[in-house]
Design goal:
alpha/beta, Alpha-Beta Plaits, Oxidized Rhodanese, domain 1, 3 domains, four-stranded parallel β-sheet, 11 helices, about 20% strand
């Protein structure tokens, strides 16, 4: 039976009031570690008690293979959090990455037990986490790009749409479980070539690199700390970024601007734009890119169909949805399906 004190009990409006009333700054950070974890339920509850006492918000996944963390920490509690993290033997030597563009990222603390910390859903015999790709820092990664290595984006297409390393291969995939087989297919003729992999914070590359090595690829390398660490290092050392555009993040900020380049296009009018939004029709809620002009034209919706639907009362929307008159299939529409631009 769940202990109600180990789960958030507030509704969204109260959570928003709480975050807006805060008189301190927060630091958004992330980290992960592939490590054998036992007693998952016990650890989950322990972390919830410890981190909620520090007023930490965010989303944490734990599994028997490790931990994946994205959190927002009050600035004045950051040192206490680092001390707390080090008090757990299994979490020592973790690289905590901080955001370069901060803001309201989370409203509550959620800690969930999962089968995997990244849901690739590939058989365990197809990877070996004791054998992963070589981790490259920002300088090594840049140098390898200059030397002509093949660069592949280990993220979903909508992430690569708004920001990427120039000339990177971007798989046209929107589900994590489809990603690794597709990357393997795209790289099939490059098993002996130097391959550079990157993702948001490094975690997806970890298992992806192990998977490719198991499939017979010889020279697999990954960006240490992902785009988040790369952007921080580039900024700190005042170097020109080879990553252009925005870094998509899975929190309320949606993205971090790394460079001023706008490489994506509005999914409705095809003009240059890079702001992701969710369709205002909650029955659709598709994530798509919309320019300011189309936002005004469609009232934040992805189609005229959705724009018309949200004019009705919530009660009428429920009735109309049941009749089948309104079918929200924007994901399958050529008018809204993102087009990848090199």
């Amino acid at each position: 039976m769940k202990n109600k004190f180990l789960y958030n009990q507030k509704n969204k409006s109260d959570l928003i009031k709480d975050i807006n009333s805060e008189q301190f700054n927060r630091i958004t950070c992330s980290f992960y570690k592939y490590v054998k974890i036992e007693n998952l339920n016990e650890l989950r509850d322990q972390l919830y008690l410890e981190w909620s006492s520090l007023n930490i918000l965010g989303r944490i996944y734990i599994a028997d293979e490790g931990i994946n963390v994205q959190i927002s920490i009050p600035e004045n509690n950051f040192k206490k959090f680092k001390t707390n993290l080090l008090s757990h033997e299994i979490f020592k030597k973790i690289n905590v990455k901080t955001a370069i563009v901060d803001g309201v990222s989370f409203l509550k603390l959620t800690i969930k037990i999962k089968n995997e910390i990244v849901a690739y859903k590939i058989p365990k015999e197809q990877y070996d986490m004791k054998n992963v790709g070589k981790h490259l820092n920002y300088k090594e990664f840049n140098n390898a790009i200059d030397d002509g290595a093949i660069v592949v984006d280990v993220r979903n297409y909508y992430e690569g749409e708004i920001g990427k390393f120039k000339n990177a291969i971007i798989p046209d995939i929107e589900r994590s479980e489809e990603l690794l087989p597709e990357i393997k297919r795209l790289l099939e003729n490059h098993k002996n070539d130097k391959i550079l992999m990157y993702c948001t914070g490094g975690i997806r590359c970890e298992k992806a690199s192990s998977y490719l090595l198991k499939q017979g690829f010889k020279d697999i390398n990954q960006l240490n700390g992902g785009i988040i660490q790369y952007a921080s290092d580039i900024k700190k050392n005042k170097l020109k970024s080879k990553f252009i555009g925005k870094n998509f993040v899975f929190d309320l900020r949606i993205s971090e601007k790394i460079t001023k380049d706008v490489i994506a296009r509005c999914h409705q009018c095809n003009c240059f734009a890079d702001n992701h939004i969710n369709c205002q029709n909650q029955s659709c809620h598709i994530l798509f890119i919309q320019c300011e002009s189309c936002y005004q034209k469609y009232n934040g919706c992805c189609t005229d169909n959705c724009k018309e639907f949200i004019k009705f009362s919530k009660e009428k929307q429920k009735k109309l949805f049941k009749t089948g008159k309104y079918k929200f299939t924007a994901q399958l529409s050529n008018n809204i399906k993102p087009k990848l631009h090199n």
